[in-house]
Amino acid sequence: MSNTRLDERGRLTLPKEIRERYGERYHIVELHDGIKLIPVADNPLDALRDEFADVEKSATELRDEAREAALDEAGR
Q1: What is the dihedral of CA 8, 35, 14, 19, to 10 degrees?
Q2: Element containing residue 29 per DSSP (H, E)
Q3: Cα separation of 36 and 6, whole Å?
C-alpha cells in the first residue's frame, strides 16, 4: 500500500508500480466510506471474452439462471 495526494489542480498520480500492474485507465466508484479505482482494459470486450472463455453456457442460459436465483432469493 502507498500514499499519494491530489495536486493543486485536483489530479491524483498513481505510483509507477500500480500503473505497470493495472494499467492507466480506471473507473472510479464512489462507496459509502470512500472510493474504489477499478482498472479498465484497453479493449474491454476482449477482456470479457478472456474472463469468460471457459464458460460453456450461453448468455441466455446464464441470464435465465440469474433471474431464477434472484426470484428464489426474493421469496418467490
Answers
A1: -150
A2: strand 26-31
A3: 15
Say how far apart CA 69 and CA 76 lie, in whole Å: 10
Among the listed residues 24, 61, 2, the one whose alpha carbon sits nearest the alpha carbon of residue 69: 61
Report the first-to-last Cα separation within the chain, whole angstroms. Answer: 44
> 44 near 38, Cβ under 8 Å?
no
Domains of the chain in start order, with CATH, are: 1-40 (2.10.260), 42-76 (no CATH)
Cα–Cα dist 40/33, whole Å: 22
Question: Rounded to two decimals, what is the model's pTM?
Answer: 0.55
Listed as ranges, residues in the chain with pLDDT below 70 are: none
